[in-house]
From TrEMBL:
Record carries keyword Transferase: yes
Name assigned to this protein: 2-C-methyl-D-erythritol 4-phosphate cytidylyltransferase
Catalysed reactions, as listed in the record: 2-C-methyl-D-erythritol 4-phosphate + CTP + H(+) = 4-CDP-2-C-methyl-D-erythritol + diphosphate
GO molecular function (one): 2-C-methyl-D-erythritol 4-phosphate cytidylyltransferase activity
Encoding gene, per UniProt annotation: ispD
Pathway the protein takes part in: Isoprenoid biosynthesis; isopentenyl diphosphate biosynthesis via DXP pathway; isopentenyl diphosphate from 1-deoxy-D-xylulose 5-phosphate: step 2/6
EC number: 2.7.7.60
Residues at the site labelled Positions MEP for the nucleophilic attack: R153, K209
Pfam families with a match to the protein in the record: IspD
InterPro entries: IspD (IPR001228), IspD/TarI (IPR034683), IspD/TarI_cytidylyltransf_bact (IPR050088), ISPD_synthase_CS (IPR018294), Nucleotide-diphossugar_trans (IPR029044)
Residues at the site labelled Transition state stabilizer: R14, K21
């Protein structure tokens, strides 16, 4: 089995909207529903696990979308890594041999090709994640606000989601990092700490994470391309 784990349990503090950003309309359709529709239409994905804030577990029904694939709802945790772990616990209980595509619910412009490539590469290499090369020069900045060198762009990769793993391995890695008390913002960081390097592959620059108001404006524009 291949599961799509869509983490949508955040508060969207940086967006500053009344409802969490995953429920805001993008071209008339809530951000999260756009993301779910792409996973629901993906032939490589068998079932969906959706992580939601506790207060929005039932609110989801009011959005009027019922996917064709089985959809399981899971309560979010305090941080993203807790939400991911909650989803993985259910997935491993359902099928310990499965693959999982972990994806931010607030990346509604992900392409079907990236889902397909992620699954294919994870089947070959064990784990795969998409991202893009930086377009800007990247500086290090000291705590004094002064420049402290320039990083070699050729060696840098800005990581996106989906990130694809064997469900049991990534759950075990998440449990270990929790015990170590290390905070993380993405799952490749967790995986490579206890297993092996992740196969990286290029994504579209359009697969943005909707974080602040500017991102919503950009996403609206990208929908028209
Ligand atoms: N406790 C959390 C925190 C985040 N997420 C999800 O992880 C993805 C990426 O997180 P981010 O953009 O940081 O979302 P928020 O945490 O909602 O944003 P903010 O930090 O501005 O509050 C989002 O789909 C978000 O809903 C989650 O499932 N559970
Ligand atoms: C997982 C992620 O989307 C990869 O770009 C990102 O790390 C999430 O970070 P955030 O701090 O939770 O926005």
């Amino acid at each position: 089995m291949v599961y799509g784990l869509i983490v949508s349990g955040g508060k969207g503090i940086r967006m500053g909207s009344e409802i969490p950003k995953q429920f805001l309309p993008l071209g008339g359709i809530p951000v999260l529903i756009r993301t779910l529709m792409i996973f629901d239409a993906c032939p490589q994905v068998d079932a969906l696990v959706l992580v939601l804030p506790e207060a929005y577990l039932e609110y989801f029904d009011t959005l009027g979308y019922s996917p064709n694939k089985p959809l399981y709802r899971v309560k979010a945790g305090e941080e993203r890594q807790d939400s991911v772990r909650h989803g993985l616990e259910l997935i491993v209980e359902l099928d310990p041999e499965s693959l999982v595509l972990i994806h931010d619910g607030v990346r509604p412009l992900v392409s079907p090709e990236v889902l397909e490539t992620g699954v294919r590469l994870a089947m070959i290499h064990g784990a795969a994640a998409c991202g893009v090369k930086p377009k800007d020069t990247v500086k290090e900045m000291g705590s004094d606000g002064l420049s402290a060198g320039t990083l070699d762009r050729a060696k840098l990769f800005l990581i996106h989601t989906p990130q694809v793993f064997q469900s049991a391995q990534i759950l075990s890695a998440h449990r270990k990092i929790l015990l170590e008390g290390i905070p993380v913002t993405d799952d490749t960081t967790v995986f490579e700490r206890y297993y092996y390097p992740v196969r990286l592959f290029e994504d579209s620059y359009a697969n943005i994470k909707i974080t602040t108001v500017e991102d919503l404006i950009m996403a609206e524009a990208l929908l028209k391309v």
